[in-house]
Amino acid sequence: SITRRLGARIDKKLEEADILLSGGEFVVMVAAITISVAMLVFATTLRPLLSVAIGAVSTVVPFFFVDSARNKRLADFNAQISDALSIMSNSLRSGFSFVQSMDMVRRELTDPIKKEFDRTILEINLGTSIEKALGNLSQRVNSEDMELVITAVLIQRQVGGNLAEVLDNIAGAIRERVRIKREIRTLTAQGRISGLIIGLLPVFLAVFMFSTNPGYIMELFRNKVGLVMLALAVLGQFSGLMIIKKIVDIKF
Question: What is the distance between the alpha carbons of residues 2 and 17, in angstroms, rounded to a whole number?
């Protein structure tokens, strides 16, 4: 059902962000924040429309923080992968097994990669196959770089070869990829800031007009021309944001 799919998606987002809440608990928290903000605004201003509008806006704030935490954790994880691969390749050359080399990474590096490798090693020690444990790691982290590493490891385990050399080559490729990503992020910073301003300016302007002169802006909602203008404005806003996102989101 739609509810189960939505709950599973929220659960996965929370897990990727390393937030210790279930999907149901998070939804209850969002509802409590929305109601509390709306009641606080109404108690302060005695304006129901403004209260509903600000309450609705506050609904997206927790989701924004979850996405922000998820993206930060993913970026931190990706930044540690090349160091982890170097440690693993050196450990393999020293005669350690693959699992022992993962344990060396867990000892040498910090979170978030330490926590994920801890969990993977625990699964292996409890009887899960290495292939299954690595697959679970890939699903939890949802990192393209880690998926590349795991794919290479699984192929090497099937066909053989020098795993230490394979990990060194992947580490070099990931370092170069991280460097290019940082350069692209720097070059597209102005476009991303422009998109953020374009997206937030109408919201703040609408809230300001609702609070200072609600009768003026309510004309947009009282006649068909105003509703058409609002619909066109939302469509234009959405189209502009998508165009900016497409321009600055460079795939490679």
Answer: 23
